[in-house]
Amino acid sequence: MMDRNEVQTRVKQAIARVLGAEESEIQDTSNFVFDLGADSQQSVELVAAFEEEFDIEMDEDEALAVQSVGDAVNFIAGHLESAGR
Q: How do the domains of the chain map onto residue ranges?
């Protein structure tokens, strides 16, 4: 099973790829739009990157609730845990 630190690392790597940000600048408290400058297209790309990276599906409501890096880590870690991965 993937631990939270691994989830966090992979989330930050996906964000860095999509937004072109430095991983060192991406904090758990970073908001995708306000802190990292994601526009609506990049927000969609982030969801797709998370789905691909972790082999999960996020519905629209879940995706809209994920506003920060910490939200993404919590959501994905919880999803993987409930799926037993």
A: 4-21+29-82
Would the pLDDT of 1 be above 90? Answer: no
List 39, 55, 59, 61, catalytic entry:
39
Q: Is 39 marked active-site?
A: yes
Whether the Cβ atoms of residue 73 and residue 34 lie closer than 8 Å to each other: no
For the entire predicted model, the pTM comes to: 0.93
- Cα–Cα dist 57/66, whole Å: 13
**pLDDT per residue as tens digits for the range 30-85:** 999 999 999 999 999 999 999 999 999 999 899 999 999 999 999 999 999 998 98
**Six-digit token string for 52:** 């691909």
Pick the CATH number of 4-21+29-82 from 1.10.1200.10, 3.40.50.2000, 3.20.20.140, 1.10.260.40: 1.10.1200.10
Sign of CA dihedral 27, 31, 75, 47: negative
